[in-house]
Amino acid sequence: MRLTFWGVRGSVATPEVDNERYGGNTPCVEIRLSPKRALLLDAGLGLRWQSNRMLNERSKGNQVEILLSHCHWDHIQGIPFSPMMYLPDNQVVIHGAGYPTRPLLDNLMEQLRPEFCPVPNFFRQEIGAHVRVEQLTSDPWFNALGCRIRWGFLPRGRSATHVVGYRIESKDATITYLTDVEYPDGPEQCKQALELARDTDVLIHDAQFLPDERAETLNRGHSNYEDALRLARIAGARRLLCTHHDPSRSDRELDEVASWLRQLNDVQAEVAHEGLQIQF
Description:
The chain is α/β, with parallel strands linked by helices. Helix content is 19%, strand content 27%. It contains 6 helices and 14 strands. A 7-stranded mixed beta sheet has the order 6-5-4-3-2-1-14. The chain has a 7-stranded mixed beta sheet with strand order 7-8-9-10-11-12-13. Strand 10 (174-178), helix 4 and strand 11 (202-206) form a beta-alpha-beta unit. The longest helix has 12 residues, at 46-57. 46% of the residues are buried.
């Protein structure tokens, strides 16, 4: 089992020189379970490069399941540009919630409207891979590629919107993915986040903002590094990986955050970058 970050940038892609070490692709994290089986956390532009790598290794017979946190553009924009979608003899399942009440498939179909996107509609059975969309149900657990998945709705500040967090349990490790979350009363008051992150081996957490930016970023639906650390400590997470970096945050600024995190002696915490791999 191998964890790989293919996109760590939030909100908008940043193909800029000042961001090239940490990366400019929007969110996509891969949990590779075998040469032909992978769980993906979100489907930003990093999905294109993940698909290219997987297809170079095996052009057919791949099984991919995508766990979407929500349908904001930076979390789904890689789907139409993933070559996996257009090659027969591959299977793709997309899990997630509709927003706010529309079915997930309807939301995903919007980005394939021909006036917006010049690619074939791979949701049609006769085109490309076998692609299926699975709307989350009232059951907080489901199975995907031999893993047990728990999901839950998380707050985005004081707004009425929500985002989906995931806990992935396998025989090798437990991984929790919480992005685009903002705790209006602090992470210690968010029961759902605590349950998803409890004793996890790896906590992947949104940390778009800096602590001193809190006042000016309230109710924007994102956390800062202190929020992520507080949850990791309370939940007993063994390792914290901070991601969804602000598009204005340069490599130099992220180096400063990484240096600060390395000085902590009670939590193993680091700043995620494209290409970061963890083997279990």
